[in-house]
Specification:
6 helices; five-stranded parallel sheet; 5 strands; Rossmann fold; alpha/beta
Length: 165
Amino acid sequence: MSETIAILCVDDEPDVLDVAVRELAPLEEIFPVETAENAAEARECLERLHRDRIGLGVIFCDHIMPGETGVDLLVAMTGEERWRPTRKVLLTGQAGLEATVKAVNRAELAHYVAKPWDRDELLTVARRQLALYIAARRLDPLPYLQHLDPNHAASLLREYRETDR
């Protein structure tokens, strides 16, 4: 049986969350999409995912939000062993150089997506990051293959088959 792997989108703007969910919809059959409007809600979601034994493949996180910033949330996640494999993507139009450097250096940022993003960009980034998450966790890629980035999926399948011998 394959592991359930979720995607989490965190943004304080409901319209941005709606667009993100709509653009990630082609993945939702296999990768459930969760949303949170701030870091506190994201932490509640993380606890629920952990309790329900659901992996978090990718988090798309805004930076400027009320309360805790997105970068601080991503840094905190990196400090917790259970969230270290999660691919962290900063999704923002307002992160300055200092915050971006902090995200890269301390949160192990996997990717940066500037708002407004290109219509297909979020889906492309999600597919690539999910393939990298699956590879890092050494999960069987077959149940997820049709929803991953084709370039990464082929090499992922080859690597998995080689280690399975």
